[in-house]
Amino acid sequence: MMMSGFFRLGVWQNFFRAWKSGYSGNLEGEGFTLGGVYVIGAGKQGVLLEHREKEFGDKVSLPSVLEAAEKIEPQAS
Fold first, then answer.
1. How confident is the model over 28-49, as pLDDT tens digits?
2. Is the whole model's pTM more than 0.85, yes or no?
3. Which end of the chain has the least Cβ crowding within 10 Å, N or C?
4. How does pLDDT run across 7-17, given as a tens digit for each residue?
5. Phi and psi at residue 67, in whole multiples of 5°?
6. Which of the residue ranges 25-29, 44-48, 72-76 would you say has the lowest mean pLDDT?
7. Burial category of 31 from C-beta neighbours within 10 Å (exposed 0-12, middle 13-18, buried 19 and up)
8. 51 in Cβ contact with 37 (< 8 Å)
9. Residue 47: beta bridge partners?
10. What are the C-alpha distances in Å from 33 to residues 1, 30, 62?
């Protein structure tokens, strides 16, 4: 995203949402890398949930993570 990320309205909305809720990060690090969340099942189940950040501060839905985690089947030893 580089500099174009700073001009996106959603990025500023996410920043103010985090600031109002009391988040206090150290703002150290590279800062241009977007993150993601994966829930991977056992054995051949594969990827049960994939969330990639589209812009800074894009959060994954916690209920969807929990739902995907509940689908993980134990692998027989």
1. 766 667 789 999 999 899 999 9
2. no
3. C
4. 777 777 777 78
5. -65, -45
6. 25-29
7. exposed
8. yes
9. 40
10. 8, 7, 21
